[in-house]
Amino acid sequence: MEKQFxxxxxxxxxxxxxxxxxxxxxxxxNSELKxxxxxxxxxxxxxxxxxxxxxxxxxxxxxx
Length: 64
Description:
Shape: globular
Number of domains: 1
Order of helices and strands: EHHEH
Largest sheet: 2 strands, antiparallel
Helix content: 40-55%
Number of strands: 2
Structural class: mainly alpha
Oligomer: single chain
Number of helices: 3
Strand order of the largest sheet: 1-2
């Protein structure tokens, strides 16, 4: 079963960014979720919301 939340390390691997930039991305996405009334987990972000905002579904490869 795939985890519902992803952390900075996985965000970094997906985006090719540094860990510190990944935390910044997570903070931004969590801020959006919080403003919509969702409960957020500091340092992690909803996998589904992350992929929605990154314009991919998590199954496709950008290199294709």
